[in-house]
Write a structure and sequence with these properties.
By secondary structure, the chain is mainly alpha-helical. Helix content is about 85%, strand content about 0%. The chain contains 9 helices and no strands. The longest helix has 29 residues, at about 35-65.
Length: about 200
């Protein structure tokens, strides 16, 4: 049970941090201006659950095929890359944001689901879920990554509604990048220790 809780906590935190300043947060804020907050949260939750289920499946395949020590080193390098990616920023042009938010399907829920699903494919949080999934069991990683993603987007929607453009986006990016760098360095140290023992 404690292994489950550790995996749940690590995946929730990792994906929460990865989503900070990510383009899918902009999509969530944009969708929230057109649909009820509950509709947006439900659409985001289902889309995230679908994408991250695929991510943990990929992680399970990788985990079965590669040795743990090398996976840990690769995960450490990946987290350092995620830190640099976060510092660089993840932007959508006004045209991309407008196109993503204005797509209309039969219902608000389906619009949010499809737009968010497409925005999340190949995104940093999807890759971070795969990375964490190579280290832990798929079920708590899937649940945790979905919870972390939805929590980050829910906060972004709420703060965005209150503060609008006054968000300190660069400070959020720097804080998230530092957390990735620390996690990456710890994983590299752990992987190196496993190789040398």
């Amino acid at each position: 049970m404690s292994a489950f809780l550790v995996a749940l906590g690590v995946s929730s935190l990792a994906i929460f941090v990865a989503e900070m300043g990510d383009k899918t947060q902009l999509v969530a804020m944009s969708l929230a201006t057109r649909y009820r907050a509950l509709t947006v949260i439900l659409g985001i939750t289902v889309a995230t659950a679908v994408v991250h289920l695929g991510s943990v499946f990929v992680a399970e395949v990788l985990g079965a095929a590669l040795p743990t020590d090398w996976l840990t080193l690769a995960a450490g390098v990946a987290f350092l890359i995620f830190g640099a990616w976060t510092l660089r920023g993840d932007e959508m042009s006004d045209k991309d944001e407008e196109r993503a938010a204005s797509r209309r399907i039969r219902s608000g829920f389906m619009t949010v689901f499809v737009v968010f699903l497409v925005a999340e494919l190949g995104d940093k949080t999807m890759l971070a879920t795969i990375t964490v999934g190579t280290q832990y069991h798929w079920l708590p990683v899937w649940i945790g990554s979905t919870v972390g993603m939805v929590a980050a987007d829910a906060i972004a929607i709420a703060i965005g509604a209150v503060l609008g453009k006054k968000l300190p986006e660069r400070a959020i990016q720097i804080g998230a990048a530092v957390l990735f760098f620390v996690a990456g360095a710890a994983m590299l140290a752990q992987g190196a220790w496993m190789l040398l023992r």
